What does this fold into?
Amino acid sequence: MSRNHIGVIPLLFVIIAIQGCQKKDEPKPVVPAPAAPAPQAAPTPPPQPQPPAAAPAPQAAAPAPEAAPAPQAAAPAPPAPPAPQAAPAKPVLATADGQKPGSRIEVQELKRVSGGTLMLRFTLINEGDQTFSVGYALGAGSTSDIATVGGVHLIEPVGKKKYLVVRDTENKCDCSRGVKDVAAKSRANLWARFPAPPDNVEKIAVVVPTFSPMDDVPISR
It folds into this structure.
């Protein structure tokens, strides 16, 4: 081998060594390790059908309270007796005003009765503010006629005959006696008996002292 070749060989080893050292000193590129795959979430299992909830056990019903015994129907009350009906008022046959303010006479009946007599029924009404004093006002003027209607009389329109109240042997009238004074806003029912006029007389005048005459009062049978 020539001397030139011997000198070249060591020089090649030096170059190779230098290159080898440079290669050792060069940082090797860091290759990142492959990332581990992220753990995948386990798939959610499908919802399992829930068993139907058991219905709550029915509670035992509380015992119903015993019904109170129905009250026994009371025995029906006996029917009340019918109320006595007032007698229908008789129609007024005639009326007359008196001298005393508020006083009035109403004739309810003038009727033929047994014994050939005539019965007169009338009412003295005091609508005034003062008491009507009977006293001698309705009498014939004698002491036996005090508090009576002995002064009442009838007058037949055709024959102009006057019929006085029937009297007994003691001259007491067959009429209302012991008549009390008639208080204000009150009335008194009175009567008197007379001899009956002939049967063909159907109407007659009735005269009560201190009151206006009542003509043509019908006579009933």
